[in-house]
Design the sequence.
């Protein structure tokens, strides 16, 4: 569902509003698919598509592309701490869980990679 009031306030043309609606539905389908039992590798694939969809939506709304404004912990397969990350939103000082199938390997990477 699109926020019509915001779309009108931002002067989003009807054609772009239709695209926003499409990508919001696509995001919902990806979330639904993530809730099904799949492999960790497939969850990571779905997550990458989900993040790309969020970036497309930022662009369509006319917002700056900023991954710090995407609540990655809302992805169904992500087990990173939502309460801590909601408190840190949107500044980017997010907490990653070592046991998360999506982000767990990020904490074991050496700095600079």
Sequence:
């Amino acid at each position: 569902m699109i926020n019509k009031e915001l779309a009108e306030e931002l002067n989003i043309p009807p054609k772009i509003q239709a695209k926003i609606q499409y990508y919001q539905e696509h995001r919902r389908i990806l979330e639904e698919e993530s809730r099904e039992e799949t492999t960790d590798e497939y969850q990571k694939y779905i997550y990458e598509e989900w993040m790309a969809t969020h970036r497309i939506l930022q662009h369509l709304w006319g917002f700056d592309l900023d991954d710090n404004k995407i609540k990655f912990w809302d992805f169904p397969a992500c087990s990173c701490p939502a309460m801590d990350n909601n408190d840190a939103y949107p500044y980017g000082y997010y907490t990653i869980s070592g046991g998360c199938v999506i982000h767990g390997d990020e904490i074991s990477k050496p700095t600079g990679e």
